Amino acid sequence: VQNYKPGRTVSIICGNHWVARVIERGEDEANLGRWSHIGLQGNQTTKILHITWYLVCNQNVAAVGEKTAFMQQDILLRQKFPDKHLNPRRQSVMDMQLFITKKQREGYFIILSTDGNENLSATRRGYCPVESDTIHAFNRDH
Questions:
Q1: Is 53 exposed, middle or buried (0-12, 13-18, 19+ CB in 10 A)?
Q2: What is the pLDDT of residues 77-89, one digit of tens each?
Q3: Helix, coil or strand: residue 90
Q4: Across the beta sheet with 35-41, what order do the strands follow?
């Protein structure tokens, strides 16, 4: 289990026109394979950040298999923060919100592509378990 890391995300830009506009690229700083991103320079002032994000299923640690992405992230989070009991799904949402906020402050417009393992059209959803000012695409106010 230690060396096995199920999944990861990839963000790819194709075509000379777009490749020449790449100004940054990377992945989540925790190195959990949760997201990857590419920043593009548009016109003189426009910057776009495309994020590809995989959000693990909402599961119980006691019930998941040892080779699932949820369990892998749980193990790595416990190694990094042994005194805390972090839920990989909730932590991923909070980390993504911080990352997006940071990038918006840097002047980026955000495009977020995700496998959120959730029905976003459901009336009650847990996609953002923390308070957020974000207007989601499935929100009536969007």
A1: buried
A2: 999 999 998 999 9
A3: helix
A4: 22-27, 35-41, 47-54, 108-115
